[in-house]
Design a protein that fits this description.
- This protein is an alpha/beta fold and about 270 residues long.
- It has a single domain, classed as 3-Layer(aba) Sandwich (Rossmann fold), CATH 3.40.50.
- The protein is built from seven helices and nine strands, in the order αββββαββαβαβαβαα.
- The chain has a five-stranded mixed β-barrel, surrounded by four helices.
- α1 packs across α2 and α2 packs across α5.
- The chain starts with a helix and ends with a helix.
- The mean pLDDT is about 95.
- The structure holds hypoxanthine.
- The site of hypoxanthine (HPA) has 13 residues, from β5, β8 and β9.
């Protein structure tokens, strides 16, 4: 496996006594959960050798390792979006580091636009499948055969047993298909109509590169999306990041209690 990945993994291993098997990526509105981790060991991304980090002011970039809702977790606080200019292979590197330190499962949350008109802003949806419309793949380039196969299967990346337990615990939980675009512009109304025809219920600008990298290394995922807004053209009002953040903030308690229930189902 790559020296860069090994070095980063060794650095993290040297900082903690217990290595978590569960990782969390927190999307808009849920960042506060990183501060609720008990007995937390915080490692800024820029301390970890070869780890990507953002130099943008106000951008949180840290690993938080400790106990959340009774489970040992590693929280990636600060995400890497393609629209920020990150190369998809950097996202792959981060997932490879998690694999090397022993992560087996990942809970991914995000904010998304609702394409499905039966959703309402503030609904939280269990993602049952993804469509990659980013026209990028984090696995492009030479394959590291030690980490995973050249042509990974995508069927097995979802932790269906975990998802089934969560659905049993929360029978009213909605399910949907998430389509990923690079952004950062929001979609046009015509794109939303096209995406609906493709079978998508939600649209967002994250998650899919991480999921593909997880499929490669055999980390199983469960994804929860907060539908923060109706997608472009469904309502007459223009989309704004302020609206997304406002709704994500409004439902953060509901969202975090769902994260709690999800962690309890592992
Ligand atoms: N489109 C893309 N990404 C998003 C949206 C949206 O409408 N809302 C939140 N993230």
């Amino acid at each position: 496996m790559g020296q860069e990945v090994l070095q980063a993994a060794e650095y993290i291993k040297g900082k903690v006594s217990k290595l978590p098997k569960i990782a969390l990526i927190l999307g808009s509105g849920l960042g506060f959960l990183a501060n609720e981790v008990k007995d937390a060991i915080v490692i800024p991304y820029n301390e970890i050798p070869n780890f990507p980090y953002s130099t943008a002011p106000g951008h949180e970039g840290k690993l938080v390792i400790g106990e959340l809702f009774g489970k040992e977790v590693l929280v990636l606080s600060g995400r890497f979006h393609i629209y920020e200019g990150w190369h998809p292979s950097e996202i792959k590197k981060v997932i490879h580091v998690l694999k090397v330190i022993g992560v087996e499962r990942m809970l991914i949350t995000n904010a998304a636009g609702a394409i499905n008109t039966s959703y309402q802003p503030g609904d939280i949806v269990l993602v049952k499948d993804i469509i990659n419309l980013m026209f990028r793949n984090p696995l492009r380039g030479p394959n590291d055969d030690e980490m995973g196969p050249r042509f990974p299967d995508m069927l097995g990346v979802f932790d269906h047993d975990w998802m089934t337990r969560l659905k049993k615990a929360v029978p009213q939980l909605r399910e949907g298909v998430y389509i990923a675009v690079t952004g950062p512009s929001y979609e046009t109304p015509a794109e939303i109509i096209a995406f609906r025809k493709l079978g998508a219920d939600l649209v967002g600008m994250s998650t899919v590169p991480e999921v593909i990298a997880c499929a490669h290394v055999g980390i199983k995922v469960l994804i929860l999306s907060c539908a923060t807004n109706m997608a472009a053209g469904i309502l007459t009002q223009p989309l704004s990041h302020e609206e997304v953040m406002e709704v994500a903030n409004k439902v953060k308690e509901k969202f975090s209690s769902l994260v709690k229930i999800a962690l309890e189902q592992i």
